[in-house]
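Final report, results section. Input specification for complex C-07:
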Amino acid sequence: MAHVFELKTLLVLIPALPLAGAAITAVLGRRVLGRHAHLPVVCAIILSFLAAVALVFQMEGSLAGHKTANGATATYEEIVRLWSWLSVPQAMNAAADAGQTPPGWGQLKIEIALRADPLTAAMLAIVTCISALVAVYSIGYMHGDPGYARFFSYIGLFVFSMTMLVSASNFLLLYVFWELVGLCSYLLIGFWYERPAAAAAGKKAFLVNRIGDVGFALGVFLIWTLYGTLDFHDTTVDGQLVNMGVLGATRLSNPDLFIGGGVATAVCLLLFLGACGKSAQFPLHVWLPDAMEGPTPVSALIHAATMVTAGVYMVARCMPLFAASLDAQQVVSAIGGITALLGAIIALTQTDLKRILAYSTISHLGYMFVALGTGTVLGVVGGMFHLMTHAFFKALLFLGAGSVMHAAGGVIDIRRLGGLRRLLPITYLTFLVGCLAIAGVPPLAGFWSKDTILLALWERSRGAGEAGLFDILLASTLFGVLLIDFYTFRPFFRVFHGPERLPEEAGGDAQESPPVMTVPLVLLALGAATVGAYFEWTHGFAHFLAATPSLDYLARHFPQVEHVAELSAIQWKLGSTGTILTMLGILLCSAIYFTGDERRAERVAQAMNVIGLYTLSFGKFFLDEVYLLLVVWPLWLLARLAAWLDDYVIDGLVNLCGLTTVLCGAVLRPIQNGLVQFYALLMAIGVAALLMIFLM
Amino acid sequence: MHAELALLNNCLVVGAVLFGLGLVGFLSRRNMLIMFLSAEMMLQGASLSFAAWGRFHNDFGGQTLVLFIIAVAAAEAAIALALVLTLFALRGRLDIAAWHDLREAHLPPPLIDEEGEQVEAAPPRPRPRLSPAGLPPPLPPDMEHRLRL
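Structure output:
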């Protein structure tokens, strides 16, 4: 029994259980399991969560053991090889002038290898925790849906893909599961595929993601040609290094082994393009708001808490590559900053609660990338920390919105809702906790992670030569704090305060959701309230992540701040500034929206529109229209042209071939005249001809 | 030796003539019985060649083959005559040109000699019918209400 809790077994069990659950639900499905179709998947995900928690504790334990041994920060990395997928001994010839290519260079050997390091373990814990809560919530939310079994098998497949994505130890495997989560996202956005909007949204998400994936694929190809391997880890046989991984221990111990210069920037930017697609960053963010056509638990799980953070995880994982290119880091930060502001501004004026939350997700993902772009350990820890806290409060907000929808008969337009706090007390309280957490009110989760991001930005802005960009980003992030208050509390006040308004779809009376939905809400609210403070005070998260080999590399080779005292002093300053801004924002917002007075909000909107800001924000900066004009219509015209060519040119050629045969047939047809003697004559002539040929 | 060669030569000439006459008869005569006889003549021409070669090589293989051919020709005669009889009964004439059902649909029918012997054609015999596969057999009239269920 003890071996079940071995680290390697746990690491395999975490993805395997949801896959098994999904397979069982998909096979037995509606016919056998009926109303209990959720059981295999929900049980599997909960078990998988427990396994992830056990994994974290195991790793924590072994890290503590290491630390006492030699005092210095120990790193932890464990590779579990399952089987070899493909192996080509010499897939690429070593460059002629290189002479001393590292061992294993050019061997295309793809192993199904899982890795356990603190970064992966943290991601696994976050993903499985949120998935388990959302899966339980879905039991209530999806109750009675004709696609109940289908929904849960997709969810199981998604959790399998996502856990494999974060535990893959190879760029190719990462890519495979990157695509698989994209597929799950597509399937779940288009879950109600009878609705044209949902089908179109699924297609849009898939296509926009493809653009990013092209970049990712090119990045992987470039890594292959530069580093001659796709593995993250080193492979050793009997202590002899046989394959030097891209992010392996050998390379991490010697920064010269990383390729720098323009090529490094190209690799990083291509990888970042992939991350932009998956994590909905500025040029490619347009799919995420439309993805809200899917069921609300899907929005909470995939399009807020887990899948969209895959890009953040990928950039964090490849941080040593980004460390080789300061330009790429600046691009990451700048794109993140632009996205953060853009998403926040658009979120201010939307009227669909789920879309507001979607834009807020885009904005928060932007903050994560801002943090990662600083390229420091503090930045990566801040980004990952924000990823975790964001997963909690954003899942909470989405599930709260789902609960409102459930009560209001599927209506989510905040103009048609109001004063629901008495009808939905639990939803109201948990939603309030989520709003306070996302706004960054001190003891709640959002405060701590945002504080870390601000600190990382400040730290980087002290760096030589790049002060300008990061100072601007610091300022815009502080400004963003103000915007967050507005876009979270505006819908909050509209929906829960003011005069009571219920749409007719609710059927007269709205009821609080069943316990199976409110219990996950309460648990998530507890998480959103406490998780940040707990990890900040114990410093557990930072210490745990610092044991990741690639982050340890950053700490060793790019030490940024010497004065811890100065850092903690500025942390107080930044934290208090942020808090004051937050409080100010909440006060302003409640002054405008608390009473539900339409005219006051109207006047603010008009004041904003003096410079066209309101129209821009309400029209989502008209990016969809721009894309329509620049991309969709030219492509549509091209498609029409191709269709015309196909109809008249290609088909014409094909028809010509057919016509030739018909004509030949018409010429030869009279031979078939039905007369026995004529056939016999032809046969005799044929025999005579053959005899002539063969005998003469 | 010379005499043997001359014999072979003569026999082959006679065989070839027989075969050629048979071929011409088969191709040009339209009476089915004559055509059948012509075919027999071609067989005999070939048989004669076999026998001649067998003698020339002092080998019984040729004669053995001839015996086989005669046996096969007898069997064939039985079948062919039965066929000719049936065909005659169906169309009332022995003209082979009366049978042209395998021609391409739009081609004109061949010319058939109107004079010559003709008897009354037998009425077409009903062919056996099987119920089509995959469909239920027709229901008796008193149970047709079932179809509407």
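The beta strands of chain A are 78-88, 108-116, 235-237, 240-243. The first strand of chain A starts at residue 78 and ends at 88. This concludes the modelling results for the funded period.
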